[in-house]
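Case study 2.
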Amino acid sequence: MREPVAQKITKPAKKAKKNRQPKSFEPPKQEQSISNLIEQDTQDLITPTPNNKRSHFLRNTLLASVSLLLTLGLGLAAERLIVDLFARFNWLGWLGIAALGIAVFAIIILAIKEIAALFRLNHIDDLRLKASQILLSDDAEQGRKVLNNLQSLYQNRADLAFAKEELLLQSIDIFDGREMIKLAERKLMTPLDIKAKQLTSASARRVAIVTAISPRAFVDVAFVAYESLKLTRAIANLYGARSGFFGSLKIAGAILSHLAVTGGVALGDSIVQQLLGHGLAAKLSARLGEGLVNGLMSVRVGIAAMKVIRPLPYEVQKQPQVMDFMADLAKITSIKDKP
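Prediction:
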């Protein structure tokens, strides 16, 4: 019998691991709030791509050329009118020149107001974007600039005089940019948010009642569009945006973009049943149910308007939800359907 002999076992060489930094020493990632993430996603969705920039340039070129042609046509028409008036009577010609001068002066004033309103809207958009960035970077210098811009934005607002004074006194002892933005939201945005919710709730009740008793669908559509525009302008003026005609168009486009990102304004019967309960929804008449749906649409428009016009993002305050307005809408359920 042979004696056992030890055999040398060779193990395959292990692959050398790459040097990496231990996870325990990695710098902590900066957390983002849900509102900031939603704001960032919304900005990413509406950020123009090169193709969109090219299409915007073509559209602006088309609008500029059409506007120039219309201006030249109106100028020639006015010139022919003045010549014809002088051909009849001299005093008619001078009267036409005076009326034309007044019209031109009024157009210039309106154009200046529209341009100022657009600049004010852009200023509010820049404030909201800078505030969102400060919430992430905690830049004290930029935070102080945002506070100064807010003070100048609401310098003529008597209803915010006490809030502005408190903001000025309490911000002296704050050296963090993030805390400055939170303080400004608590002091300035809280009273404005309360008023914006009241405006939205009142508009939703009017829409629900009128569309519940109106005999024609055309009346429903017209009234909902009118109330949506009226609510948008009221919220814009509340937050400091002086919306003119073109400013209102810009705000409406931003609201529609926001509604498209967040799921649209369509609310069906199933949503009404979930909000009001199956038993109550079953007792409601068809017209009253349609009124509630239209009222909920107005609520969504009001919430979107607050989101896109508010000069500060939602960080401290809770962003309004549809459920916050259901108590007011439920008060109209006692209205009987029109025979």
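The chain is about 70% helix and 0% strand.
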